[in-house]
## 1
Amino acid sequence: MQGGSQPPEAIRPVEVADRVQWIGALDPHLRNFDIILRTANGTSYNSYAVRGSSGVAIIDTVKQEFTDPFLRRLEAVTRYDEITTLVLNHLEPDHTGAVPELLRRAPHVEICVSPRGVQVLRALLKDDFDSYTVRVVRTGDTVSLGDRRLRFLTTPYVHWPDTQCTYLEEQQLLFTCDLMGCHFCDERLFNDCVGDFRFSFEYYFEHIMRPFKRYVIEALDLIEPLDIAMIAPSHGPILRSHPREYITHYRRLVKTRLASEVGNQKTLLIFYVSAYGATSQMAYAVYAGAAENPGVRVSLFDLQVGEVTPFVDLIEEADALAFGTPTINGDAVKTVWDLLAGLVDIDTKGKLGAAFGSYGWTGEAVPMVEARMQGMKMRVPEKGIKIKLHPTEDELEDCRAFGRRLAAHLTGEVAAREIDISDLL
């Protein structure tokens, strides 16, 4: 834990703003989150208590194993009978682990969730769901706490379908759930007090928010017009110093850089690995055919270099991808699979995809790659080309024609279509 002065369970509630208390939990020893994220500094599960003249609202809870310290902090700032509202901005287990026990102690509260959150809440509460008061809230809906008001903003897919943000109007305090959060544990809590968390902030964006960039943009469109004095996410430091700078930084992170360079051109990236030069010949032919189209900017990359991470940024902004791989032991080569696996961090839906390659015996690699691209919701309009051993000049012309067709699909010169998965077999 960055602060290091107290064990996590001993941390008292912390005043975030007037009558707003942090009552969350610290998890400094966590080193992996949801399997896919490394958490060198642990994380925090930020929960907040907001007191008004006629009630108290709890904003999110904590992971289940931290229920007891969470409830002790909650009890230090309010009685259970004072709680009128439980706002669940997101229902993943790290936000709702303490919900069943909290509801056992305060069954009278009104639970506020987004339209998509209801089904998740029902799954969480199971047979007890109908015994609670559940209110579905949308952008613009409000909850009164007497002299203070919470306003809701529906912000789906940042990063779950159920996500929303909550705005405390009088304090200009925005509870953003996972948005603008990060996995960084420091008992000092506030961004102007904790250690350097820049890496954690951007790492979190890359792995959590990046696949949902277009939804992040929509969320920012809702948030930016607000007067914001503080941003209180569900993980990591509370952003009380220069909160607007973090919104601006998110705008930079979601901005497409390539568009200003290519104008109205479409972009096609061709990646290949070649064992004996045959797939390489095919790749250059596909490249040459596609490059004949002035409306398409084509790039060619040899994956034999082994390092695939730098290509993910390029792929995110590209309109189409083509993968060339030989078939080795009945499979595509590992480097191609590594690159495809790396695409889980970006939105590939709707991108055009294609595959080609040489083989010696069976040629399974091309349809396997095509099936993977379709599984990633890419559009595969042309059945891939497989050539046994080294291509002849006629076969290379087939590859050039393949490239021309891919370019034509990109520019809309041919009607959009999708090959049937049965054609891949």
## 2
Amino acid sequence: MSLGKAIKMGFAKTINIADDKTYTIAGVQSYGKGIVNRRTEIGVNLKMKKYQVIEENFLMWCKVDTKNGAFGITKKEHVGSLASTNMALAKIDLENFNPKFLEKLFSFEFFHSYITHLSSGTTNRKYLTPDQLCLKVEIPNLTLEEQNKFIELSDKIVDLGIPNELNNQLFLVKQLRQAFLSEAMQGKLCQSEPVENQETGQQLLARIKAEKAQLIKDKKLKKEKELPPIKPEEIPFEIPNNWVWCRLGEIAYITSGSTPSKDDFVESGIPYLKMYNLRKQKIDFHFKPQYIKEEVHNGQLKRCRAFPGDIIMNIVGPPLGKIAVIPEELTECNFNQAAVLIRPLYKEMNWFVFWYLNEMSAINSIDTKGVAGQANISVTQAQNIKVPLPSILIQNQIVAKLDELMKTCDDLENSIKQSQLQNEQLLQQVLKEALEAREEVSI
């Protein structure tokens, strides 16, 4: 039967937004993960001035993007929250359909793929109008009693606990990564005792300061405001004697990005990074690439030109902590105001700084409170980040060891995810067959 037999459009109520009132805005997650109350906003900050009021037991989805299973069922905790007019809300026929049954359907990958197949549009934007969704999407023709039995069967399979165990294993791998990073930055993964004739962290810092002073004197570098010394009570953990604590701004050039005007964007030119291009701690410029004019890159945005080896870190969240190194294939690029560029004086230090920022203790220690609950880090705060500095030789040893350990973690993670995929495929096949069998009986 068509999905339109289970849901009806036109029952959602709308309100006009008042500038002085506070509202909770809800959204829907991909892959059948349901609806979440995303944020609280004062009316004056909302660009749209008409919203839908959420009631319980409605099917909700994004009207302009029907791929990836971005559907959910409204529940008690969502009542009174608002959904933008970009969202569709359809009332569920409770006399003949259990909302949990529809929720189960929309959580299955095979059902996402089925809806995407029916949709039209580009790869990144698959579209079905609400009317098309109601008419084209077919659901199993089950009685309410059969739906309840299906839910019971599904719950029993989930209660076996296999998905939870695999999620626990992924969480343990994440903790293992964190433990490796923490030990590395405390000097526990490499030779920590001073070696004769080896440069110390203190000597490296002095060399950097002297070279920066010369560059300033030669007018090749702008003089910056002197950073405050690190007080003993600010030091977060112990480091070896031949290391030294310093500020990130003492060893690196740091600047924020900028946003050009709409007219400065072109079909091909200088690659321009946005925060969605920072994916899994790497730059993915193939995802929604954008370009700006070369004259803008070398003119008004000259200070935020980025090159291979430079580190990009997002400074607007949540979440914070998206960090990546510009790859060699991006010979030059630019980036928006939601990030900072970090360029250590010596390129050999880039990967050590990258791994240190990934350890997250420095970022987590920053007061990131912003307006309307939006966390942010200022350029000054980025410059003041405390860094444990060993010699470049030890930095290279740490980076090599971390590369090896993180590869081991990647292999573990991929193995667990493969097991997860196989388990999900088996679960979905069992449930799919159960659905088909019950549908045949009901016909």
